[in-house]
Amino acid sequence: MFFLLALLTELGRLQAHVGSEGIFLHVTVPRKILSNDSEVSERKMIYIITIDGQPYTLHLRKQSFLPQNFLVYTYNEAGSLHSESPYFMMHCHYQGYAAEFPNSFVTLSICSGLRGFLQFENVSYGIEPLESSARFEHIIYQMKNNDPNVSILAENYSHIWQKDQSYKVPLNSQKKNLSKLLPQYLEIYIIVEKALYDYMGSEMMAVTQKIVQVIGLVNTMFTQFRLTVILSSLELWSNENQISTSGDADDILQRFLAWKRDYLILRPHDIAYLLVYRKHPKYVGATFPGTICNESYDAGIAMYPDAIDLEGFSVIIAQLLGLNVGLTYDDITQCFCLRATCIMNHEAMSARGIKIFSNCSMHDYRYFVSKFEAKCLQKLSNLQPLHQNQPVCGNGILESNEECDCGNKKECQFKKCCDYNTCKLKGSVKCGSGPCCTSKCELSIVGTPCRKSVDPECDFTEYCNGTSSDCVPDTYALNGHLCKLGTAYCYNGQCQTTDNQCAKIFGKGAQGAPFACFKEVNSLHETSENCGFKNSQPLPCERKDVLCGKLACVQPHKNAYKSDIQYTVYSYIQDHVCVSIATGSSMRSDGTDNAYVADGTMCGPEMYCVNKTCRKVHLTGYNCNTTTKCKGKGICNNFGNCQCFPGHKPPDCKFQFGSPGGSIDDGNFQKSDEFYTEKGYNAHWNNWFILSFYIVLPFFIIFTIVIFKRNEIRKLCNRENTEYSSNSSAVSESYDVEH
Question: Disintegrin domain spans which residues (predicted)?
Answer without folding.
Answer: 390-479
